[in-house]
Amino acid sequence: MNIDVSTIFQIAGIGIIVAMIHTVLKQMGKEDMAHWITVIGFVIVLFMVVRLLNDLFREIKTIFLFQ
Questions:
Q1: Which domain holds residue 49?
Q2: Total domains in the fold of the chain
Q3: What is the pTM of this model?
């Protein structure tokens, strides 16, 4: 299981982009849309983290079951 630094940069990049879009939409008075963008960004990052956790648990399983 090799976690690339690029994955961390992708998550950070998504966070920065979502924060900028949220700020712009909030300044425009579209707070509902800003909140939805934040939720969508959170869900995208959550899926990325879940995939990484799946790889981690698979690696732990192979280590302890000696496969």
A1: 5-64
A2: 1
A3: 0.79
